[in-house]
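From the pipeline queue, job 12 of 40. The input is one protein chain; the requested action is below.

Action: predict structure.
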Amino acid sequence: MARVSREERRKRPYYVDNKKFFEAMCDFKKSVLAAVDAGEKRPVVPDYVAECIMKIATHLSYKPNFINYTFREEMICDGIENSLQYIDNFNPDKSKNPFAYFTQIIYYAFLRRIAKEKKHLYVKMKYSEHTNILGDTADTQAHDSGSNFNDDVKYSEWTEEYMKGFVRDFEENKRRKVKKRRTIEE
């Protein structure tokens, strides 16, 4: 595979042309304002703008800090949804860089999805931990053994250690956030 020189990379078009994207956003904003003034139905987001937003979300998900999540498609969908939700807040008078505006929105949507998924994982692990504790302390009788009970559910040492570490770190992080919030409020 031949290496591509910097000069050749510069000549290649970027996956989103920011100037063209800015022009499309300005046209869209004008059409929205015209529709609002005329009392008409709000216009649909142009295909080019939607395509740019989708490309930004997809390419941002390839960054090393997002690539290995199993819920990457959900992250992309959240980013697109938030971009469309806040599309009217883009102000061409303040910024001529819609690429940066939407990248920022999508980036924070990704972070919110990761936090949400970690919370779900925490709940699952806590439930699993609680189930195993109940299984160890429950009063079982001879006829209770079977596939309906957690007698045969055993985690490897590594899995148990990982789960305990994840739960401990999650709870510690939550305590830290609550403490920080309380000191700000005081």
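Job complete. The CA atoms of residues 30 and 36 lie 10 Å apart.
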